[in-house]
Specification:
mainly beta, four-stranded antiparallel β-sheet, single chain, Methylamine Dehydrogenase, Chain H, 146 residues, elongated
Length: 146
């Protein structure tokens, strides 16, 4: 009897601890306790594995946590879009993201981090159809983006 042993090609998925669902050809993945993003067809690293967590992406952006601060990265190349200076940040919607800093909420442009709504509100809802709802000192406000 002849015995043949052949090495099998390594599956790129094996180099990661966990790979999330693929979305538009990209997937969140973890390796060594850090998170990044990979091309879900071949494992090419799109966002480096340097974050404590990365959320699912929307509008080509993903919120990320690094240390005890949050920011936003471009999910296709890892460029930092919103600096890591917030206590929390939400998903990008209509090019804007809710964020919390110093216990107060505001909104930032999710492409460049420019503050659009000052951090003085007790709560702000997501931007929908060019408007957001906010609450401050027991009063409710409607914020319009033109």
């Amino acid at each position: 009897m002849k015995v043949t042993i052949k090495e099998l090609p390594t599956n790129w998925r094996d180099q990661y601890d966990n790979i999330g669902n693929s979305q538009e050809g990209k997937a969140r993945a973890s390796k060594g306790g850090k998170y990044g993003m990979v091309d879900s067809s071949n494992g090419t690293v799109l966002v480096p594995f340097e974050y404590d967590y990365i959320g699912d992406f929307q509008e080509g952006k993903a919120w990320a946590e690094k240390g005890d601060k949050y920011g936003m990265v471009d999910s296709s190349n890892g460029n930092i879009l919103v600096p890591f200076e917030y206590d929390w940040i939400g998903y990008s919607q209509e090019g804007k993201a809710r964020a919390r800093k110093g216990g107060k909420y505001g909104m930032v442009d999710s492409l460049n981090g420019t503050v659009l709504v000052p951090f003085e509100y007790d709560y702000i809802g997501n931007s929908q159809e060019g408007k957001a709802w906010a609450k401050k000192d027991g009063k409710e406000f409607e914020i319009s983006f033109n």
